[in-house]
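Batch manifest, entry 17 of 40.
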Amino acid sequence: MKHSNFAVSKRLSAVAIGMAMSATTAQADMATYAIDPDHQTVAFTIMHAGYARTLGRFAEVQGTFDYNDETQELSNVRVTIETASVQTWHEARDNHVRSDDFLAADAHPQITFTADAGTPSSETTGTVRGDLTIRGVTKPVTLDVTKNQLSDYPCCHGKETVGISATTRILRSDFGSTYALPVFVGDEVDIMLEFEAIRQD
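Output type: structure tokens
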């Protein structure tokens, strides 16, 4: 019996070591990616007076995340947008959007998005639920995400790069912007993200 117990204990120890090694390997396979500032678009549309949607974008965006392409595990998503970098290609309107009526850029110079997990629905699609902070107000949002490609870049830096498309919809009133509601400026804001992110190791 002593010999049998020793054998069982030895097998259990081997299993435990194997599980630990597998966990370590999985963790090691997580890679950090950084958004390429030269290949990113964070854009939005909002209805103007019921006639047509106005397009805008943010020029200054930074972000990183950890991702394992084999397991589709995602973590440590951290994105920062400089609020004052908003552009709608109309100077007076840009200044108004930066004002307290909308983004309150002076008081809240950054918009942030953070998330610690994703939910894949296929090999290339899924959702990422995280916290979006605008005007100092934080609300949960869900991004619908498509992984367009992950491969070594065909030129230039040559590093592994992932290309992402994502969309979501928010209500600006949820973040404290109620100017000209409900008729002149819409409440719903459709957000679109297109970016390449470069592996950092």
